[in-house]
Amino acid sequence: MRGFSLIEVLISLSVLSVIGSIGLVATISSYNRYEFNKEKVLFINSIQESRSQSLNNIDNVSHGVFDRVSANVSSTTEVIFSKNGRSEIMTIYSNGKIQ
To answer: When comparing pLDDT for 59 and 89, which is higher?
Structure first.
């Protein structure tokens, strides 16, 4: 007797399906993490660019990020990033340090 039986083919296909599903979940999770970090880095770069322009007084125009609620320049500000159930807090200190 030569070839594979129907049971052997079905078992092989089910094992491949499980392995493919695990790979797909890992890939989607990795992509979501990448997108989350990309948005965070973009935001940080925007704040740092604003700070740089403000410190260099480019075009004699006010630049920067302002706390509109308290209007207190000496306070720290927390920014919460949240996407797809993942969240991260970034703190901006009055001296411009971002953590």
So the answer is: 89
